[in-house]
Amino acid sequence: MPETQTDGLEVLETREWLDSLDYVLSKGGPERAGRLLQQLSLHARLAAGVNLPFTATTPYQNTIPSAQQAPFPGSQEMERRIKSLVRWNALAMVVRANKIQEGIGGHISTYASAATLYEVAFNHFLRAQTGTGDRDIVYFQGHAAPGMYARAYLEGRIPKQKLENFRRELKPGGGLSSYPHPWLMPDFWEFPTVSMGLGPIQAIYQARFMRYLENRGLKEPRDGKVWAFLGDGEMDEPESLGSITLASRERLDNLIFVVNCNLQRLDGPVRGNGKIIQELEAIFRGAGWNVIKVIWGTDWDMLIRNDRDGLLVRRMGEISDGQYQKYFVESGAYFRQNFFGTDPRLLKMVEHYSDEQLARMRLGGHDPIKVHAAYKAAVEHEGSPTIILAKTIKGYGLGEAGEGKNITHQQKKLNDDELWMFRSRFGIPIPDDELHEAPFYRPADDSPEVTYMQARRKQLGGYLPERKVRSKPIASVSDTIFEEFYKGTEGREASTTMVFVRLLSKLLRDPEIGKLIVPIIPDEARTFGMEALFRQVGIYSSVGQLYEPVDMDTLLYYKEALNGQILEEGITEAGSMCSFIAAGTAYATYGINTIPFFIYYSMFGFQRIGDLIWAAADMRTHGFLIGGTAGRTTLAGEGLQHQDGHSHVLALSVPNLLAYDPAFAYEIAIIIQDGIRRMYADQESIFYYLTVTNEPLPMPAMPDGKDIRDGVLKGMYRFKASAKKNAKLHAQLFGSGTIMYEVLKAQQILEEKYGVATDVWSVTSYKCLYSDGNECERWNRLHPGETARVPYVTQCLKDAPGVFVAASDYMKVLPESISQWVPRRLVALGTDGFGRSENRTSLRDFFEVDAKHIVLATLNALAYEKQIGREVVQRGVKELAIDPEKPNPAKS
């Protein structure tokens, strides 16, 4: 058969099949057609071995056909005018800021591309309070912050003066932070999102925590949603995609991602040679999400409906994002020639369109009808999370100043012609002679625009973004929970981790706050000796336990339950930290005082997820981070990657974090009891970091003395004074964590062998001492005419005789951070350098923090002060069997 005849037959066959499918669609609808296609595919595979090409994507067109769109419920014209006013004020804010202060920065183009996505959401979907008393939780894209400020200005929530002070927060009257920061604007922003990738992963765990609260009976099951507005470039961050299967596995249909696909990141295209929408569709469909693509606006509907042979859709799918970018900045004639001109049939489809019409054809993300249809489908979808991929143009409306151009992300200024064009395009009623200053514009309170937007927000329950503390303070925890820890272990050995787990177990049983405790574990419960909690409170599972666990016959079997209390997150510190943040901010988000305890390998905290810890601080998170298996020499055997000697140094950087390295059981009890009081009764915006270890040691009883509790909390106290009253030589030794026991051994050696009267101080928190010292220094500097304040460490040591030697399982810089407030020279011993796989004794010798090295450092300090001769130090080296030529642990 001739080739032309074969081609003609194929065309005829294809047309017959398409007509048949159209008939099924008209009679049975999309569901029946879908079932038929599945049956045909299965038949072809089983009967003839036909393997259809795998595809994880759908054609490059809107997921929701125009015929299935929900009708738009509002006034399109009024909402367009409101959106134009928000656009103008957002742009004016950045332009004015950079006219006043060169280089102050700001972003115009992100909101310019996303304005329709936000305005449709604000006017119809984002609920500050639902009809059932719930609310929607919204993560706003950080770079779009000017748009949120501009809208709040129109709503009357932000005064003009603050807009004038955008990015100038220290000006009189206050200003506006560059991005969402609850620490800086605690009544406005809820979630910091501009460290890209943190918004998506937090939104996922927030949606799961909402379900956790509901399934545990702490919150009524209602209809609140979690929305996350994201950028397509942001989706390259590992945090953006790393936990998406959790959302589908947990069937989080309360979660909606809205990705602004403007195809551009800071320097250029997100996928110049590819298609980011198709790539993300494949990823999220594969992960089990409901994917809604919003690519083409209403202007394209007729062309797509008339595309009977699929030529147009095929052409849409052939073009790379980099080339689409080129179309955005070129003329209609260029678009006609290069997009449609590849096939005469495509040119025929648009022959009745002028070049100007082609240039003005909107994309889906700029069309409120398409966006509304997508949002409505998303909020009504059940059984899985939804991601909306909306195609937009970065810098939309900026024209020659940056619309669709690679430079647009950095655009901060517009000249007079560009301002004129923007003003005219969006119909802003500002006279030409005022344009140069880019003035703000707000209609009167009774104007149609303001009246309309206020009515919409009233119907949706109030304003967003807005942060409120919805919880009431809790009563202090009963002393009886903590009393057993003051008595010590009476000679029995226990690690501080065991002490913490015992205390946590008692808190979980407390009738008042037990239900509020949220234990969070990244798959290390057995490492930390927490498996008893499996049976006590259960592991949370949104489906309960659908299998018989392999250890069912044991007492401490792996028990999952719908109302389980433990969040067993698997091997993800980042995901666990997001649960910690969700639980630790629930006092504001939900009005529920949940108290999270997140225990993890201390090495994998600040070093691995420091960005999330910083975000937690910004969000005024409450709770306890518990760094388990802590200390460079205390975690035996694990080696370089696991042994933590610097988390307390990194903790110095977080302003509202209180960091403690307790040595004894009673110290842990005192710190946690006081922490619960300060965070949940007094509602201070602080959170805690405690390090605990896995080394079993005898826990002493709390010493007598009214200042012990105060000293534990402030950072140091004298744990054991010397019994030698008439000695000529004196030393003050500082110990923390398990190295405290080496310090106590050193005290005994110094007193018995070298005649040095030695006091031992427990330093529970170098950070508290460091913060207090700096605060006193600052106050004294600013108040030279008043009585000087004395740092707490100086007060403690003012009458302490002799030399000062500090030893810890952390870097030397940690004790050195307080040296300026110690009355005399402070000698610091620490664990600078890489860890090793060894036992504790060998590690402490290697890092020179064991008892013998503490003794040697003390003798050397006495010689430095000329209280003993150098020969005594030399004798000490020999008697203590120290190798003076051993490698330097900081470098080896």
Description:
- Helix content is 42%, strand content 10%.
- The protein is built from 34 helices and 20 strands.
- The strands form 5 sheets. Strands 10-7-11-12-14-13 form a 6-stranded parallel beta sheet, with helices on both faces. Strands 1-2-3-5-4 form a 5-stranded parallel beta sheet, with helices on both faces. A 5-stranded mixed beta sheet has the order 16-18-17-19-20.
- Helix 26 links the parallel strand 13 and strand 14.
- It is elongated.
- The protein starts with a helix and ends in a 13-residue tail after the last helix.
Q: Pick out the low-confidence regions.
A: none
Number of strands: 20
Give the mean pLDDT. Answer: 93
**Fraction of residues in H or I helices:** 40-55%
Specify the biggest β-sheet.
6 strands, parallel
Q: Number of helical segments?
A: 34
Beta percentage is 5-15%
With strands numbered from the N-terminus, the spatial order across the biggest sheet is 10-7-11-12-14-13
Class by SSE composition: alpha/beta
- Distance linking N and C termini: 80 Å
Rg: 33 Å
Q: Could you say which overall geometry the principal axes of the C-alpha atoms support?
A: elongated
